[in-house]
Amino acid sequence: SAQAQEKKIKIGVIYDLTGPLAGGGSELQYVGAKIMIDNFIKQGGVEGYKIEAIYADAQSKPDVAINEAVRLIEQEKVNLVLGFFSSAQCVPVAARVEQLKNFMWITTCISTAVVENKNLKYVFRPQASGQQFGLMAADMIEKNAKAKFGKEPKDMRVAIIHEDGSYGVDVAKGNEAGSKKAGFNIVLKEGYSATAPDLSSLVTKLKRARPDVIFHTGYNPDITLFARQAREQGLKFGALVGHGAGYGVYEKLKEGMGSDVNYVFNIDPISIWLANQSALDPKLPPVIKMVGEEFDKVKPGVAIRSAHVGMAASNSYVFFTEVLPRAIKKYGGVDPEALRKAALEVDLPEGGTMLGFGVKFAGEGSPIAGQNERSFPVIIQYVDDKSYVVWPKSQQQREPVLPLPKTSGFSNQ
Amino acid sequence: MMEIFDIYLLEALVNGILLGGVLALLALGLNLIFGVIDVTWICYAELVMIGMYGMYYLFSVYGLPYWVAAPICILLVAALGAALHFLVIEPLLGAPPINQLLATGGVLFVLQSFATVAFGIDFRNLGIRLPVLALGEMHFSYARLLAFVAALIGMVAVYLFMTRTYTGTAIRAIAQDRQIMALMGVDTKKIYLVTSALGGGLAGLAACLLVLQYDVHPFVGLSFGPITFLICVLGGLGNFVGGFVAAFLFAEIISLGGLFSDLEWGYVLAFAFFIVMMFIRPAGLLAKRS
Amino acid sequence: MLVVDGLVKRFGGFTAVNNVSFKVDQGEILGLIGPNGSGKSTIFNMLSGTFPPSAGSIRFAGTEIAGLPPHRIINSGIGRTFQIPRPFRRLSIFENVALAGYYGQGSHSRSKADEAAERALAMVGLPTDRTASVDGLGAAGLKKLELAKAIATGPKLLLADESLGGLDEAEMDQAAEMLRKIRTELGITIIWVEHIMGVLMRVVDRVMVLDHGEKISEGLPSAVSHDPRVIEVYLGTDAHATQATAAAAAAAGSDPARR
Amino acid sequence: MNKQLAWGVGLAALVALPFVYRDPYHLHILVLILIWSFAYTSWSMMGRFGLVSLGHGGFMGVGAYVTALLWNHLGVSPWIGIPAAMLCAGVLALIVAYPCFRFRITGHYFALVTLALSGIVLQIIIATRDYTGGSLGYTPERTKGSHIVALQFDDKVVWYLIALGIWAGGLAIWYWIDRSMSRYAMEAISEDEDAAAAAGVNVTAEKLRITVLSAVMTAMAGALYGQYQMFISPDTVSGIAVSLQMVFAAVVGGIYVALGPTVGAIITILLAEVLRIGFGTKAVGWDNLVYGVLLVLFIIFLPKGILGSLLAWLKSPSKHRDG
Amino acid sequence: MLELRSIDAGYGRFQALFGIDLDVKAGEAVGVIGPNGAGKTTLMRVISGLIRPTKGSISMQGTDVLTTPAHRIVSLGIAHVPENRRLFPRLSVEDNLRMGAFMPEARARYRERMDFVFDLFPRMKERRNQLAGTMSGGEQQMCAIGRALMSDPKLLLLDEPSAGLAPVVVQQVFELVKRIRAGGLTVLIVEQNVQQVLQVVDRAYLLEAGSIRASGASADLLADDSIRQAYLGV
Ligand SMILES: Nc1ncnc2c1ncn2[C@@H]1O[C@H](COP(=O)(O)OP(=O)(O)OP(=O)(O)O)[C@@H](O)[C@H]1O
Ligand SMILES: Nc1ncnc2c1ncn2[C@@H]1O[C@H](COP(=O)(O)OP(=O)(O)OP(=O)(O)O)[C@@H](O)[C@H]1O
Ligand SMILES: [Mg+2]
Ligand SMILES: [Mg+2]
Predict the structure, then answer these.
(1) Which of B39, B236, D6, D226 is at a distance of 20 to 30 A from C110, taking alpha carbons?
(2) Is the C-alpha dihedral spanning E187, E192, E198, E204 positive or negative?
(3) Which residues of chain C have pLDDT under 50?
């Protein structure tokens, strides 16, 4: 009877707090998720259910992630696992969760491979996928080619470079697909290891290929190294489009690239603080404010709050406000089956989340079962230490600056 | 088209040489420790990492000028090297070499997680941007030129030290017969102190120059560790000139391999080259064949 | 049984053995002497396959063995000892010898190996219990172990490199006696390198002298010990030469087996 | 006799364990310990004779990937795939080790050649991502037919028993080598190759045999790990990190005693697990810090490994050596 | 010059020397003979500080050797040619000799000592750039003696210098010992070659099972029947 009184949902939260991925954005995601979970704990839980969170560090290693997921599910008896930054962890953990018939709520892990053709039943990802990132980048360049570059799309020279991990590879696929669709001339597509001590031959190849636009996906140390060697070797181009992760952490980007960071593009789910608040559900802006204040307490003095934080916060928020209450009220509990049914019924229109997009999960039978079909990223541009949403048109805060103005060290004007 | 190709090839060649400078600098200290006194510091690249953090804190946080911070950093890593020797290696001098490898492997974990705990997981950067040397279409990095020059001077200095001085000779002798060193009037502790501090100092020197080119984070050592060991062996253990040459060969393979094929295959090529060379010249590139 | 022709070994630019030819007959003991660095151990190393000759031919029992890998040569019936004993310290004395018995004869039979080990150990006078450790052996014991290992490989020809170095007089006599026994009881042909003339000359049938990698003299002990060149480069002028001569003479007188 | 009885009882107890105690997470850890114990035992087959390989991550990777690739792309059952993978690893070991031994590449040199090998295998897996999934890792397809043919079981007890069998098999091989003349030969070779050759040992062949055996067993461990986890990634089954992990665990446990690598697996896996859970997310990074410090202390103060030192210590007061 | 008083020494639990008393006067040549395993080498190691005795005292020209750190004992003028040569095999001959002159006191006279050694052993001059480990046994012995002489010692400890040498070289070595003595150097020499060593030393000690069994002038020992029986094979 003590159990009956004490209604509780146990959540296992897994991110990388140590290892290379931690600094690549995972730790910021962790901060975002924790802010949101603490917020609901402070509110006394959801629908009479107390919330208990158990945090674990995946240490940037897939096998540790698997072990921790298994431990949380089998040992700690959590009702669901939430979080995950790296797709290399999401793939095996999702398979495990399916096998154990538990519930998994992915806040990040953008690789398409996580859900594609996996027929996942208990795994949900409100997040946009990597290929969407890649496609979005190509879309912006295509639509602006004539006006800004004065070229037909088929004359646009684009280069796709990426770290060769799961994330870079997936985004690059999107880049390639988008570029092909737009008819760009892909002058180079190449992966490299994020720990490579030297990228100068990549830069040399880029110089030889003379791209108008470089699509780049990477983490921090390799982005800095690339930017530095590109500048040192005198690489010139018209635009540099980054895709989240390293490009999402402006502070570090600026530290590494200096003034060259100006006019760089980044694709991510919108930073919640940049979202067009008038277009959002009116109950969201106060939450955004709360997250911002809490974040400032954790990491004081940050000029541009990283998109990573908001991403995890928003995606967690959807779980607490949409999935959990419905599961409890309509399906009578927090068991995986109830959570799953509740998740499948989420139906938020555009503007329904802090990230601007809506939520509707692809159901069983879909090739991307578990994926949010309404998610989309946005493209921001860093201009003079501020970031502005420049794409898609619907979210646009200002026109993208294209191509790089002469003031930039990389400008090929 | 052909002309452009040539100039890029040349650029890749020269960049290979400059990368070689970086690798040679890294290999210098390791060659002293691993090659000459036959002690395995598997955590060598992590010492460099600590040195890079040292530079970051001295320069960016405490605001010291670069040229003041650098010597302090070198001393710091030298002290760390000496401490490593006396705390970890000394008790294991009589044990099988594999135990040294493992103990310093443990130190590698310790240093990585120490950096994580003490400095956080953020990527750090000095934010110094050195000018660029432009020769027509080709551009070269001063940071790398600097590393190249330092490696060259360091190599010559260490070579002279090892062959021309009594201490240098003793350093070369100590791995071969430790017990009888006392008969020569040599205080083995002192020789080990000098050598490990020197090895550490060279790691510190590498750190000062690497930090101009790379972000610091607790795992930066992973990029350099294995390759540095391979270079020492390829050049012939304890052979400083050989190590220097090997660094350039490796760098050229990575650089040219990366130019003609994918970057990833550049490394496969470099590793494969290493294995093949081991068979052709097991005692090192410059060794005489017996 | 062994015919060596034009054997040469170069190390880099240095010629350690230069065009040496000789023969060893079944059942004889050939003494190989010469100044330090004259190439004796190098010849042994080539005969036993430790390294290949730079040129020349080595025919053993009718087949060419120059350049064969060492285990093939050992299996074909040549055994050797090392000048500086090289025991396997992580194995017991018995295991050291049993190893040689197992692999050396190429028969790869455990029981035969144990048998051979017991015989060899008894021959040289080492304990045959299975666990006695090598660490307990002094200089003399190690030399004996070297011999036992070589014998256990079941050789027809034994190459003994300085079996006496570091032994005291009593032990030297024992060792010399042992070599003789090995020859007579086991019928093993022996090439023996040694610097202690007083003992060597007593035992060997024939002596070959090397200097700077070249053969400078060959013949009966008594003759060789009078050869002025040998005296000059190797024996020195005084006591040793006389000692050697005396020993050779004594042996010649006492040993009817000598031709 | 007593010893055999103890072994028998111990093994029987291990077989009975999952039928009595069914905590799934603990069983999971046990299965991992058994599989890794087998891998570490395979490594120490070579390691105990001074052949320090830093390339076993490569063999493990070959074992795991070849098995999974054959299954996914060609539908070849792991029952055939695993032997095929072991064959591949054996051939790879031959290709690298033969010249090494022929040209007398030993000690540091050998360790680093094998290090390069595991680097190559890792890079190739990553670079051929169209087939191997690259750094995203690779999942054997779930079977639609027989679980036995596909060697896929959802029941941990089955896996526990399989792993236990393999582990015991590994120990049996260890004992078999330990009793054989090969051990004498390898001990001799590890001390002095020339002297061993002079005793008639075919040095190259003996070393090759033990190397290939070790590689083949390691590949099997890799394949099993992949089948059990239903996921492999370059980081978890291949490359330098895994190679080092093997050396660590084996040496920490003790490479000169049969159960040493097993003890090493138990200690390293449990220690990592306990420290990680103990420190949790409150003291991030401290678990690895403490883990590293403990490893260093183990190696400095127990140079023969934990089990090796323990046995030596148990023996020394009772049995007076020489005198 | 050198005094040992009631020295006990050993390896771990194993005791190799029992209450050794031994004196060497300046300018003397003293021999130590005895069967294998008697403890001769151990005695030499104790004097040069390679192992420390468990009991007793050693003084060299009035200085307490036991309180002197091992690496300073060379500076007292004691040079030790260890058993089995113990060269640095991967250093050249010249570098091995240089190691012999490592002490600051010796460095100043490096050239001079080098010429002295090369005079003594012309073969070493020929092979100065060869790696010591690749030389023949006899060559290595020369190098080892040369290395000890580089420090310009007052007392030379020789542990079986004739082992493995050609007869002509053995003679040279013993002549060398004589010459060294003539130059005022004191010598303590361990030998198996009893006959010859007794011809060059003034006095000798007979060591058996870690204790001194007999001692006296060479002539007396040579005349002693039991010694002749046991060690000269006569
Ligand atoms: N690996 C090598 N590299 C270079 N020179 C070598 C090598 N091995 C031997 N030598 C040289 O070859 C010559 C012959 O050496 P070897 O060992 O055969 O002499 P030895 O007759 O056995 O002398 P000893 O009686 O002193 O043992 C020596 O001068 C030696 O320095
Ligand atoms: N490092 C060591 N550890 C243990 N025991 C040793 C060690 N060195 C020598 N001994 C033992 O000490 C005793 C004396 O040895 P030592 O070497 O002094 O004899 P020695 O008279 O020099 O003999 P040899 O004529 O064979 O050189 C021997 O019983 C030997 O086994
Ligand atoms: Mg010889
Ligand atoms: Mg001795």
Answers:
(1) D6
(2) positive
(3) 255-259
Residue C163: per-residue pLDDT: 62
Domain range for residue B242?
2-280
Summarize the confidence of residues B186-194 as an average pLDDT. 92
User: How far from D209 is each of A125, A289, B78, D37, D206, CA to CA, in Å?
Assistant: 51, 68, 44, 21, 5
- Residue D113 in contact with residue D100, Cβ under 8 Å? yes
CB-ligand 1 contact for E114 (6 Å cutoff): no
Q: Which of residues 76-115 of C touch D (CB under 8 A)?
A: 79-80, 82, 86-91, 95-96, 98-100, 102-106, 108, 110, 113
Cβ-Cβ contacts under 8 Å, B290 against chain C: 11-12
Per-residue pLDDT at C259 = 36
* Ligand 2 site-directed mutation target among E8, E11, E205, E231, most atoms within 8 Å of CB: E11
Q: Does B120 touch chain D (CB under 8 A)?
A: no
Q: E156 has which bridge partners?
A: E79, E187
Domains of chain C: 25-52+158-166+173-259 (3.40.50.300), 78-154 (no CATH)
* Long-range Cβ contact pairs of A332-335 (< 8 A, separation 24 or more): A334/A9, A334/A49, A334/A79, A334/A80, A335/A79
> Is B15 domain-assigned?
yes
Q: Identify the chains in contact with B, defined as 3+ C-beta pairs within 8 A.
A: A, C, D, E
Query: Any idea which ligand is nearest the CA of E38?
Result: 2
Does B286 map to a domain? Answer: no
Ligand 2 geometric centre to CA of E84 (Å)? 13
Would you say the CB of residue C14 lies under 6 angstroms from ligand 1?
yes
Domains and CATH numbers, chain E: 1-77+154-234 (3.40.50.300), 85-152 (no CATH)
Low-confidence ranges of chain D (pLDDT < 70): 1, 317-323
pLDDT at D5 (0 to 100): 87
What are the residues facing A299 on neighbouring strands? none
Residues of chain A falling short of pLDDT 70: 1-5
Choose among D28, D235, D285: nearest Cβ to A62.
Answer: D235
CB contact under 8 A, C136 and D322: yes
* Type and span of the H or E element at E33: strand E29-33
Domain count across chain B: 1
Q: Measured between alpha carbons, how far is A250 from A269 in angstroms, rounded to an integer?
A: 15
pLDDT in tens, E116-140: 889 888 888 988 898 998 887 778 8
Asked whether the ipTM of the predicted complex exceeds the cut of 0.90, the reply is no
C-alpha distances in Å from residue D143, one per residue of D67, D71, D75, D240? 14, 10, 10, 32
Residue B213, in any domain of the structure: yes
What gap in Å lies between CA B24 and CA D112, rounded to an integer? Answer: 18
**How many C-beta atoms lie closer than 10 Å to residue D107's C-beta?**
14
D269 close contact with C: CB closer than 8 A:
no
Mean confidence (pLDDT) of chain E? 87
**Is residue A127 within 8 Å of residue A109, measured between CB atoms?**
yes
Report how far residue E102's alpha carbon sits from residue E113's, in angstroms, rounded to the nearest whole number. 12
Cβ proximity of C52 and C66 under 8 Å: yes
* Cβ atoms of residues A91 and D134 within 8 Å: no
Beta bridge partners of E217: E203
Separation in Å, CA of B197 to nearest CA in chain D: 21
Given the DSSP bridges, would you call strands A185-192 and A157-163 parallel, antiparallel or unpaired?
parallel
Stated pTM of the model: 0.88
All residues of chain C having their beta carbon less than 8 Å from the beta carbon of residue E135 are 37
Residue B18 and residue B141 in contact, taking contact as beta carbons nearer than 8 Å: yes
Residues 6+ apart with CB under 8 A from C193: C31, C32, C33, C40, C41, C44, C83, C159, C160, C161, C162
Q: Domain of B46: which CATH number?
A: 1.10.3470
